[in-house]
Amino acid sequence: SLSDIHIPFQRNEILQAAVEQAKGADVLILNGDIFDCYGISVFKKSKLIPLLREYEAVLEFVRGLVPHFPHIRLVRGNHEKRFCGTFNTNLKEALEPPLGDDLMERLARGDIYDDTGTCVGNYDFPNVHYDKFAAWYTIVGKTIFCHPRRFSRVPGGTVKMAYDWFQQVGHIDFDSIVMGHT
Questions:
Q1: Tell me: the pLDDT tens digits for 38-96?
Q2: pTM of this prediction?
Q3: Per-residue pLDDT averaged across 8-16, rounded?
Q4: Other beta carbons less than 10 A from residue 141's beta carbon
């Protein structure tokens, strides 16, 4: 499980070491905040990083993983959720395409965009999976991998909120939670 990579702010040497160590695993979970979505953040910015450039960097990262893992599952984090939220509040010039679908859906399809934001094709990613109906979590065996949007400043509070939610759902049989975001 890899989470909170925040491309384009990743630490390449640490990320490469983690990927090398994981090679040979049956499943790789990209457990949210793979994107930073810096260009659409409401926080003060010190540089211009267009979303299209960020998308290309994430796409190339996933493309590099595809040959090494039989299954790659994508979980949407709070930073990818920013993309959806931006459309509910306002559109910005700096946003530029890709517009429309959830970023993780586009990534799972391997969508390729030209400089105008037009989809010009797709990489073949038959082993990359994303469930838009359970976007913030996935389950492998009896382990839940999740990246909740809500956050608690109380130590362990975010995990407790997620645990309580999964307990209330009732039909999910699990014995452990691996959480991004906190």
A1: 888 777 888 888 889 999 999 999 999 999 999 999 999 998 988 766 544 554 444 44
A2: 0.88
A3: 96
A4: 10
Pairing state between β 111-113 and 119-122 = antiparallel
Residue environment code for 10-48, b if the CB has 16+ CB neighbours within 10 A, otherwise e? beeeeeeeebeebeeeebbbbbbbbbbbbbbeeeeeeee
Q: Report the 10 Å Cβ neighbour count for 119.
A: 14
DSSP sequence for 114-176: -TTS-EEEE---TTEEE-GGGTTEEEETTEEEE--S---SSTTHHHHHHHHHHHHH-S---SE
Structure tokens at 134: 């359970």
Determine the straight-line distance between the first and last CA of the chain, rounded to whole angstroms.
14
Whole-number Å distance between alpha carbons of 70 and 58 = 19
Q: Which residues pair with residue 145 across a beta bridge?
A: 138, 178
Per-residue pLDDT averaged across 16-25, rounded? 96
User: What is the overall mean pLDDT for the chain?
Assistant: 88
